[in-house]
Amino acid sequence: MDDWTTSHDRVLAQRNAEGWMFFFEAARDLRTTGAVAPSSKKLARLLTDPVQEHGTRPLNVLEAGAGTGSVTRALISRLSPASRLDIVEANARFASQLRRLVRTHSRLAGEGERVRVHHALIEQLDTGRPYDVIVSGLPFTNFTPAQVDTIMNRYMELLHPGGALTYFAYRGTRYARVLTASRAEARRHRSVEHVLADYQRRYATGCWTVWGNLPPANVWQLRRPVGVPAPAALGLTAGATR
């Protein structure tokens, strides 16, 4: 068996194991996991495109809600020399998996200190530095409107002026909630979408659909305007669920 075959089989086995890990964590706690499968390569590429746009300039990058690391791998492969990556993950099992990924990733050999994994909520993160790019994998539609507003506001606070935030939202979730959830859950979901829509209206610079993802997803890109102070929290829209 040649080296390529051995390496290829190892990668496939790793991805299969991570897929099952993601599935079991979703079944155990869907509210914080928010999906039943890791992000596709196309979704990961679109989420990390702002890192690529900066070329070789050193960047401070933040990833929130990294899961088993499917997007993290894309970020690491696109990091320029001297760039730093902070990864925030609230799920302890995922955080442990991410630390193993950082320790063993070939691109980080001898310089793993450039990437740090924080087992915490994004609201609690305080590294003392602003970020050029933030990539969010958090399941916003599983949170309350107040939580989403707090998180989005925190992202804008953490961004450099001109910095980019990318996040994704699964398509069709509103209709699924209407068909399968209680009225209170459907109202909460609509209120979360209203909060996100306000941030999109003020800061969005692009939106793309990834049909090949499971399930299909929209990728949003927002930018903090240059010369504009970080926004204050919006507060809940009328009728939002706390």
Which word captures the global form? globular
Largest sheet: 7 strands, mixed
The count of helical stretches stands at 8
CATH evolutionary superfamily:
Vaccinia Virus protein VP39
Q: Separation of termini? A: 58 Å
Could you tell me the CATH topology label. Rossmann fold
Low-confidence stretches: 1-34, 235-242
Question: If strands are numbered along the chain, what order do they take across the biggest sheet?
Answer: 3-2-1-4-5-7-6
Structural class: alpha/beta
* Total number of domains: 1
Q: In CATH's first tier, which class applies?
A: Alpha Beta
Number of strands: 7
Helix-strand string:
HHHEHEHEEHEHHEE
Summed over residues and divided by their number, the pLDDT gives a mean of 82
**Estimated helix fraction:** 40-55%
Strand content: 15-25%
Radius of gyration: 18 Å
Describe the secondary structure blueprint for this structure.
Elements: H1 3-28, H2 30-33, H3 41-53, E1 60-64, H4 70-78, E2 84-88, H5 92-104, E3 115-118, E4 131-136, H6 145-158, E5 159-170, H7 173-180, H8 183-203, E6 204-210, E7 217-223
Parallel strand pairs: 1-2, 1-4, 2-3, 4-5
Antiparallel strand pairs: 5-7, 6-7
Helix pairs in contact: 3-4, 6-8
Textual characterization of the structure:
The termini are far apart. The radius of gyration is 18 Å and the shape is globular. It has helices at 3-28, 30-33, 41-53, 70-78, 92-104, 145-158, 173-180, 183-203, and strands at 60-64, 84-88, 115-118, 131-136, 159-170, 204-210, 217-223. α3 (41-53) runs parallel beside α4 (70-78) and α6 (145-158) packs parallel to α8 (183-203). The protein is 45% helix and 19% strand. α5 links the parallel β2 (84-88) and β3 (115-118). Strands 3-2-1-4-5-7-6 form a seven-stranded mixed beta sheet. Mean pLDDT is 82; it is low at 1-34 and 235-242. It is an alpha/beta fold and 242 residues long. The protein has one domain (40-223): Rossmann fold.
